[in-house]
Amino acid sequence: MAMTPVSHQPLITPRPVPAELLAVLAERLGARLSTAWAVREHHGRDESPFDVPPPDAVLFCESTEEVAFAVAQAARWKVPVIPYGAGSSLEGHLLAVQGGLSLDLSRMNTVLQLNAEDQTVRVQPGVLRSQLNQTVKDAGLFFPIDPGADASIGGMTATRASGTNAVRYGTMRENVLALTVVTASGEVIHTGTRARKSSAGYDLTRLMVGSEGTLGVITEITLKLHPLPESVAAAICSFDDVASAVNTTIAIIQMGVPIARCELLDSNAVRAVNLNDKLGLKESPMLLMEFHGSPASVQEQTETVQALAHEHGGQAFEWATTPEARTRLWRARHHAYLSALQTKPGCRAVTTDTCVPISRLAEAVTVAEDEARAAGLPYFIVGHVGDGNFHIAYLIDPARPEERELAERLNEGVVRRAIAMQGTCTGEHGIGLHKQGFLLEEAGAGGVAMMRAIKQALDPDNILNPGKIFQRPAV
Amino acid sequence: MAMTPVSHQPLITPRPVPAELLAVLAERLGARLSTAWAVREHHGRDESPFDVPPPDAVLFCESTEEVAFAVAQAARWKVPVIPYGAGSSLEGHLLAVQGGLSLDLSRMNTVLQLNAEDQTVRVQPGVLRSQLNQTVKDAGLFFPIDPGADASIGGMTATRASGTNAVRYGTMRENVLALTVVTASGEVIHTGTRARKSSAGYDLTRLMVGSEGTLGVITEITLKLHPLPESVAAAICSFDDVASAVNTTIAIIQMGVPIARCELLDSNAVRAVNLNDKLGLKESPMLLMEFHGSPASVQEQTETVQALAHEHGGQAFEWATTPEARTRLWRARHHAYLSALQTKPGCRAVTTDTCVPISRLAEAVTVAEDEARAAGLPYFIVGHVGDGNFHIAYLIDPARPEERELAERLNEGVVRRAIAMQGTCTGEHGIGLHKQGFLLEEAGAGGVAMMRAIKQALDPDNILNPGKIFQRPAV
Domain FAD-binding PCMH-type, which positions (chains A, B) (predicted)? Predict the structure, then answer.
């Protein structure tokens, strides 16, 4: 099947927001309804490369009841509502392509209920992941999902986020137990329970996780937590080329080593973090790894991994033994994206997010690298390679459309190969505005038709974050 | 809210099966379409206590294309289709409450593609779990999900099954990567990919897992496999009472010990397996445990668990060190249900399946035990207690309706408490015919309305296993 052409600029079709609606909302929310340009503009931007007019108004909601009220009112006038968390989307999830209301949930940032003995926690959607970990660490627990940004738990749930720990602890898919959701008509429903497993009817929790705000507004999330490991060790290991680093990773996974983090940085990414974080790392492809467990288990894991790295030409491990040294390394990893942007002033990044079966990873990464090098655009590669997920980011000058086109063509090649390898166009960033054509290629017309049928059933007037994942179904 | 009354006998509303439909199917399937009474009768029974007339015909399908053909034809006449795997449902999933066609998928029993290096396998739905493990073990891999019966992978997917290993390896929810599904109109769609994670649109895979045949007929399943552990140790430990065994389990989970299996048998269950399997076990409450990992890790786990058991009055571990001894113990555990049935000739079992947050498990189990004892019905308790999931089975004489009523009242009490504890009415058996009232209580009217809306959107003529999970929506 031919690759569906990708539209690089979203379709913008604003719908009117009646003054009566704003009046009703203002009556309930007072100054927490804003139509000030600066506020709207702030809520109309994310980390994606799209230019879209801002939403017509922003509501700073403070409770599930307020969200339900706002959605019920918007539903009366068929006006779009777009949930807003920390604004860190890379795929345009929060852009108001059909106008409407931005529901800012950042003030709903309370950790509602920690059940330490069950290792569960219930939070509001505006809680940030750093805040959550700060709150639960005194109970000896942590929440492992860590996208690079300090994202909100609501946004992470809505995009099925993952990050560096997913290789061991899973993604939001595995770590969300239950949700409170405001439906398209403004009703409040609850999905899931605090039990670890259930066979009670359709898995509405998993349907909402990753639905990008298009099926409901998530207002409470119950999460699994994990015990803080007794022992933690982090290490870096340099390789002659990206292929050797990736082949080491493949061997680690195939051996069943329960590695907690296994991150690739290519030499460009290492150079960027060196510049930004003054780390003085050797500027060659590198694995950044972390091991969790009892002291004996960590010891065993590291011995196995060192032997595997050695077989693939890896240099001796450098250990980050203190918590401070580990934090410094991981901060650098999480800053890699922003650090790399600084190497080309004024640039933006077009970032791929494919995830492939682990046995195909070396081929996927090295072909992407070769093509980027041949194309002559600056790029860098980082990857959650233990999952088969990597990002190659092309740095483009937004004033030069030909760079944008070139980056998009390279991205299409990466995606096309991932799908041919029985992988996915997006491991963790979501579809948003950018990957709608890729979704059609990956899931097929029948799969997307089923998604559209669900959307139509749960949101018949298409008011919940319209224009994302797919365009409005032709009825 | 008051508990919704439970209907103990399903609503039976047969729909006509036109002769033209049978003629079209016979033309394509030949002798693999059967209307013989014995065949229909065999496909109209499972392990549930319901008496329902058998389906009107049975189709032995041999390919996705045949299933698609059969469903498309059934759709023309709006005739129900009910997927049939191994017939081991406990909740009436395969009963033809509205008549129609039983699609027997047991001949679709080929392991299609093993990707050992990715630890994935693609199978047809009729593959049995024992067969799958036999096939993949030479590659050093295993599939951990093990409901007591030798169920089919298709049926296990459709009911979101789990079993004894779920505490470490998760359930079907975590271990299904991708599906091929025949929709209500007879189209073939594909969900998911072989990548370990994805954020590509709605999670149709998870929506189909646990949908009990009501949203599509599953014709291929791609599963995660796991490396056979380097070292395995199994042990039993006896306790004075059920509470002590459960409290030991709670401590094991809260410590974060990666125990692979942690099963409770009460003294009645031990007595039954002793009678049946001649094991000579001490007839008191018992934990049956298994540890997987490297030798050092297994050593460490067992030391921790022995210390915890000792604190709760557990007697010294008895080890099953040889594979034969382990197999014998686990076979006995898997036979517990049938062994117990044999202690009261001619009886049937009414089985609960609640799952609660682990901190509430001791209370949930001991209250259930006290009530059963006070009621005077024979019962036994087994439990995947590491997950917070336990089964109390009441042995009733089907000829005495008052025993049935008493068992159902006890069951209602167990479920009511589980839901109050933020748990679920079914950890692994599914809703089927039996727990529709409980689902309403657990998920709420809004949650069930959302499930019905999805059903209506994907199966507007209600031909896919109608009458299961919920009655047909009022339109």
Answer: 51-228
